[in-house]
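Why predict the complex rather than its parts? Because the way molecules touch one another can change local conformation, and only a joint prediction can capture that. The input here totals 662 residues.
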Amino acid sequence: MSKYSLLKNKMPSAIKKAWIISDLLTFFILIIIVSLARFFTNIFITSSWINKSAIIFFIVAVLATIASLLLIPYRYYFHRYKINQTEVAIQTGFFFRKTTYIPLIRIQHIETSQGPILRFVHLTELSIHTAANVHLLSGLDIKTAANLRTQILDLVEVIREDV
Amino acid sequence: MKMYNYKRLHPFVILKRSTSWVFSFSLLIAFDVFRNIESKSSWFYSIAILGSLFFLAFIFNLYRWFTFKYAITSTNLSIKSGIFFKREKTIPFSRIQSIHQKTWFLFRPFNLVSITIETASSSSKIEDIVLEVVTRSTYNLLENLRLGKENTIDSGKTQIYMPQYSVSLNNIIIFSLIDLDVISVILGLITIVYPFSHFAYKYLNSFLSKLFTSGILILTFVLITVVTLTILGTIIKNIFKYYKFTVYRELNHIIIKRGFFTRTTLSIPIERIQAIRINSSLLQMLLNIKTVELLLASGTTSEAKEDASDTNFFLFPIINGHLLTKKLMQILPEFTNTKIIQKKPHTVSCPPHYFLSSRFRFLNLLLLVPLFFWSGNWYILFSVIILFFTLLSFINSIWQTKSQAVTYYEKELLMIRTVLFFTRTEYLCPLNKIQTISISTTPFLYYQKLGHISFVFKTGESASTIKLKYLSWKTCETIRFHCAPRIKNYTLIKKEVQP
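Output of the joint prediction:
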């Protein structure tokens, strides 16, 4: 059996940092929400199940965060993209592997955006819009994103077709 | 800048809009009248309120009528509206996805129609262009210009095309029965109600229980009448909706006419059809009937255009399986293999993987585990229900894996067949309408050289995905290779962006 064929380009390694930060942030937000909910339900209802379920939820959240943090190297390894003359390909997933091929002719427009986390690690997000849906290529460094954008736009200009 | 010859809508639009606006309040006012019906003053007040509302609406719509202008040139339609915020819209004919023409039965003697023009705007913010009340000659002018015909001004003599497909009254009734899945509804009701009444008769014999049983009987009676009434209602609705449903081909357009009270004419350019969907459910397969729908890119779910808000554009609401290819050949030769007969269709084999595709259905059986700890009397019923649904989903997945197929016609067309909820669905789609293709797998499946492939289309405001599961990896790759658009003579320009 041949190895699962991976695409050429990896994301910049700074994306790992962004993933770690976002994992931790979601974890803390979850904890805050759960503790707030526990606090307010304790005011109105008295039941031992509130504390128990909060503990269960806490354990689940910790485990999920740890698992997601441990999987970051694999996620990084399988998170790839490619652009050639006809299409953009985006590959994601360690367990559920998925490769999406977007023909350049079908691209309607391209957006770049940068959230606070991505700005912290000096990366940017490229969203490729087709007529039907949006494909995100998250975590390119700014220069590559601009480069890619101009490349794709050049191609799209040459070969344009209507919906 | 070219000078446009701007025109206003027909003045009837003021009346129509104001009455329909006031009519939406009529229920409230009627309620107010019935609250104290005997006092004369309340009547007077209600009528005064209604009158002033109408007056307000009239003034507002007069303003709207006055400021709304449209012009038709040889290549586009442009619309001006507003005094304070002036807006101008220009729609090139080449960007039009479909045109709906509606004739309200009250306006028929005056030869007035309403035209809705749909473009493929992806966001719902961009509303469709509605010319609400215009004369029929405007529509004819628009159509003639759009179709690139010679006679533009004189529209009195329009060509009469023979309808290539029409639906009889009988077929409409069958269609609405099948569409409702009436039989399954009735069977379900009977299976629910019958054991209950039986149970009630047999075991509860005291006077109270008699009351109870008669209550159940009355309830069943009411239920059955409700069901029959809804069936009748849908049949009547469908008769009015699909009254004299005819389809014909005119140059590069498909024209669909239907409706009793409001006669709708829908014209769709062929190259705007995203895909054709052919459905046949179990019942339909038994009767050898198929339902054919057009999938279009124009969004039709917003509230502003109530009548056009069908998400289904039926091409043939009901058609005999034998006739289908013949009719498609007549009306849409682009979507059959007649035009491309010389090129051999390339059928990709999808070997059925019975166990793989159905293995997760058996997880439903885990629901049986808590039943062992159940102390109630209903565990037999629950377990039977669980087993029944597991069996159903198992059969469905077996059927799905057995019947999925892909046929590829050289550079033109892709035919995908799959099964969803006991309905066999065939998609005929031009290759250039596939937006994206994705291939997915898991390490376990990849070890067995298997993968899923999914195609994404634009239908309406959102995307619709067709997924074929458990194909061999090689098949996925070949399908993707065949469906990818070919672009010749283009080399990627390497540009260095200055930081």
